[in-house]
Amino acid sequence: MSAPPALSQPDRRMDALVANGEFPITAKDFDVISGIMMAQTGISLPIAKANLVYSRVAKRLRQLGLRDFKEYCALVTSADGAAECQEMIASLTTNVTRFFREPHHFEHLKTKILPDLVAAARTGGRIRLWSAACSSGQEPYSMALTLLSVMPDAAKYDVKILATDIDPNMLKAGAEGIYDEAALEPVPASLRERWFRALNDGTGRRQAVDEMRKLVSFKKLNLIGSWPIRNKFHAVFCRNVAIYFENDTQEMIWSRFFPLLEDQAALYIGHSERVSGLAEALLRSDGITIYRPNGAKGARA
Ligand SMILES: C[S@@+](CC[C@H](N)C(=O)[O-])C[C@H]1O[C@@H](n2cnc3c(N)ncnc32)[C@H](O)[C@@H]1O
């Protein structure tokens, strides 16, 4: 006798509460929020992240005077909800960063990538670097500081650092370039004194000097969207962001960097990330979480 057809799960499951707190959040609400995050940022939020989603978004409900996540989901999916949807995305992206995070990348940049470039830039060449998930600017300024430590007069030459992120709040913070003492702690004292001016407002904060800020352009760019980029780069830092994406999205992103890398360029990725899939044929390892484009000079597509 054949088995009876499986009964479909009662719809009740979607009404189940997935986190505890003052604002009810059901599995259905969670699906709406995680669906928006996947579609708009590539960030994967499994149900195990329900408490994190709750804690980050609940304050928006409080500020807006809403009763539950059902009302909030109705708002962010409504025609008038685009601005709140951006707020939600900003609250759910993780922006943790610090100066000279993963120091071996900056050592590699300084010793393996920059020497030839600096010499070429002094005779009319150019230097192009990209921080592709720059958060509040510590990463692109660490790149700038590394360059300035070997080329203090970089501002006189054709040198540009592109700093991109999906989160406009982070881009604004990066462009301002103001950091407190704790944030600046990993910056060697000599570089801190030379390239950050004290604000003298009693807070101990410092601001990146104009000469350094002018080297860095902060622009919005979604790694899973279109990349309006024409030039190639000598170094790309794309660190601690792909970890939030599903595997196929990660592979797609690594592959997309390849045509944007100069022949002798380096791609730096986060400490728990790994180039995988089709991109493995395009990029070869040159140290821990450091990759160089494969293929002899001139032999690439
Ligand atoms: C954990 S921070 C990493 C910052 C820096 N790269 C580092 O390693 O210190 C991740 C950053 O990726 C950004 N991000 C998340 N999804 C993105 C996407 N789809 N496109 C561009 N940036 C994204 C977030 O806004 C956040 O600032």
Overview of this structure, please?
Helix 3 packs across helix 5 and helix 6 (103-121) crosses helix 7 (138-150). The relative contact order is 0.11. The protein is of the alpha/beta class and 301 residues long. It is globular and about 65 Å long. Helices cover 40% and strands 16% of the residues. The chain starts with 11 loop residues before the first helix and ends in an 8-residue tail after the last strand.
CATH A-level architecture of the largest domain: 3-Layer(aba) Sandwich
* Category by helix and strand content: alpha/beta
What composes the largest sheet?
7 strands, mixed
Poorly predicted spans = 296-301
Secondary-structure element series: HHHHHHEHEHEHHEEHEEHEEE
* CATH class identity of the largest domain: Alpha Beta
**What's the number of extended β-strand segments?**
10
Give the strand line-up of the largest sheet: 6-2-1-7-8-10-9
Arithmetic mean pLDDT: 94
Radius of gyration, taken over Cα atoms and rounded to an integer in Å: 22 Å
The CATH homologous superfamily name of the largest domain equals Vaccinia Virus protein VP39
Distance linking N and C termini = 61 Å
Put simply, the count of helices is 12
Helix content: 25-40%
Distinct ligands, ions and cofactors found in the model: S-adenosylmethionine
Work out the strand percent. 15-25%
